[in-house]
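Supplementary Methods, section 5.1.

A reviewer requested that the exact input to the structure prediction be made available. We therefore reproduce it here, unchanged from the version used in the analyses.
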Amino acid sequence: MELAGCEKRKFKSICSSIDKLDKEPWEKVRHELIVMKGLNEQQTDILERFVAYKGEPWALLRKLQEDKVFEGHKNGSETLKEMELLFTYL
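The structure derived from this sequence is encoded token-by-token as follows.
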């Protein structure tokens, strides 16, 4: 959400919308994010890129690294390191 430029105060609200993806299609969630949560189209496009990532943990981590989605972003790079450590422990 940080990469999408979302306000920190909207974190829980945005998560509650994204959580609906188990039951709702992305277009409906996107509409909610824009109309009800106040995000703009560019922000929702960035979020869509991330919610599309799915799969087995190691494969997902490799895909995120290959796609360089966090390139140049300190917190994103740290997140990848933390994911790798977590998957190693698991």
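The longest helix spans residues 74-89. These observations are discussed further in the main text.
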